[in-house]
Amino acid sequence: MTRRTAIHLAAASGLSMQAAPYEPAAANRKAREWFQDAKFGLFVHWGVYSVLGKGEWVMNNDKMTAADYQTLPARFNPVKFNAAEWVATAKNAGQKYITITSKHHDGFAMWGTKQSKWNIVDTTPYAKDPLKMLAEECRNQGVKLFFYHSHLDWTHPDYFPRGRTGLASGRAENGDFNRYLDFMDAQLTELLTNYGEIGGIWFDGIWDRKDAEWRLRQTYDLIHRLQPHALIGNNHHLAPFEGEDFQMFEKDLPGQNTAGFSEGVSVGKLPLETCDTIGVAWGYNPNEKKLKSTKQLLHTLIRAAGMNANFLLNVGPKPDGTIQDEFAARLKEMGAWLGKYGESVYGTRGGPIGPRPWGVTTAKANKVYVHVMDWPDRALVIPPLGKKTGAARVLGGGPVAVKSVENGLLLQLPETGRDEFDTVIELTV
Ligand code: FHN
Questions:
Q1: Structural contact between residues 346 and 363, judged by C-beta atoms closer than 8 angstroms
Q2: pLDDT per residue as tens digits for the range 287-300
Q3: CATH number, domain with residue 384
Q4: From CA 144, how far away is CA 37, in angstroms rounded?
């Protein structure tokens, strides 16, 4: 996105560059520290689209009218949904928070909203509120709950003028966009009033209408009035706007742009989070064969931590309410690694040495963790740390010989005790 478009979008979204500065509450600043310490979260894209098994964009991609799409809830009966199991799966994976779609682009509310009948309680044979159950389980198990909430809406009649997507919905060519934003604020008020303490709101979709007056600051201020600690992020693929509390990157580490979402996006000063899928789609698609390995997923988590960012890893649950086995297996393996070496990730910040082909560093108190992910040889020279180095050891293993050399520190990696995913050398500084 060009800078001109970015300024245009910022202005159009009610966040003119002159927006009153946002002063986060003390509780919000504390929540930001928690968020940066937490490092790893579970993203969940779950909705009626899972019935078709073609991902969460099926209504748009298959050019379905809203009327056609509205036949899906009658087939959505996730009787195997078990909130305790989902939360336990996340906890066992080492994930400290869950970000679940309360409403995706199809506008379907995954909770018992009173603002419209287009929701899981009123239109499905399941007729229960999974977000209520999940919120309770998260409280029971000490996991924070965030909601992903789409600004973009392919079914609401007042989402007008239309944007770039959802154009086959068959809605009348009229509507009152402010009435739609009032509707959205009313739904957000329900989520931030009736579901206990919420970790934050993960917005998405304003890129669908770059020229619209999104009243973002009005919505952000509403959220912060209801729950001052709630962290707001917006996946607009731009630098953060006033009122936002963290910056997210999609399918790329901060500052990278291999997936094309982050063209020209500068890495700001807010807490950072990158998100990605195990396959390609975010919503359920059993036909995906190319799944990322546990090694690839762990490397993303560790590289993100080395760049001071969290990793939000996505699953797209099945229409019966279960998480597919291949995904659950990867999460379990990640949890096993974090069970052994998590101290080198949780509570750390980016280390003194930036990302290298061989790995990254993270740091916490008087420790620097050298994450050797791809280095076949025994001797590794790292740049000088700028601090005197004391003891050095392989996490979970024996001592490591460290020698100052002309251009840094020479680490003698152990012959044995290496980890298949990431050998962590702990340096005391
Ligand atoms: O269109 C959405 C997509 O369905 C998914 O929710 C991702 C998650 O980051 N965000 C948008 C694509 O950028």
A1: no
A2: 998 999 999 999 99
A3: 2.60.40.1180
A4: 13
Dist CA 52 CA 237 (whole Å) = 29
Counting residues of the chain whose pLDDT is more than 70, the rounded percentage is 96
Beta-strand ranges (E) seen in 284-326 are 309-315
Ligand 1 centroid to residue 378 C-alpha, Å: 42
The answer to whether position 353 is within a domain reads no
In percent, how much of the chain has pLDDT > 90?
Answer: 89
Contact 246, 272 (CB under 8 A): yes
Work out how many domains the chain is built from and give that number: 2
3-class secondary structure, 141? helix
| DSSP letter string, 363-407 | EETTEEEEEESS--SSEEEE---SS----EEETTS-B-EEEEETT
The mean pLDDT of the chain is 95
The answer to whether the CB of 128 falls within 8 A of the CB of 121 is: yes
Give the range of the structural domain holding residue 225, as residue numbers without chain letter: 3-348
Domain-embedded: residue 100? yes
Which ligand 1 atom is at minimum distance from the Cα of 57?
A: 4
For 382, what's the count of Cα atoms within 13 Å in the CB-facing half-sphere? Answer: 29
Same domain, residue pair 319 and 414:
no
Q: Which residue's alpha carbon is nearest to atom 11 within ligand 1?
A: 204
SS3 429: coil
Residues with CB under 6 A from ligand 1: 56-57, 204, 235, 250, 261, 275, 282
Do 132 and 247 fall within a single domain?
yes
Provide the sign of the torsion angle of the four alpha carbons 242, 248, 253, 258, taken in this order. negative
Are residue 157 and residue 18 in the same domain, yes or no?
A: yes
Which of 50, 246, 261, 282 is the best mutation target for the ligand 1 pocket, counting ligand atoms within 8 Å of the beta carbon and taking the most?
Answer: 282
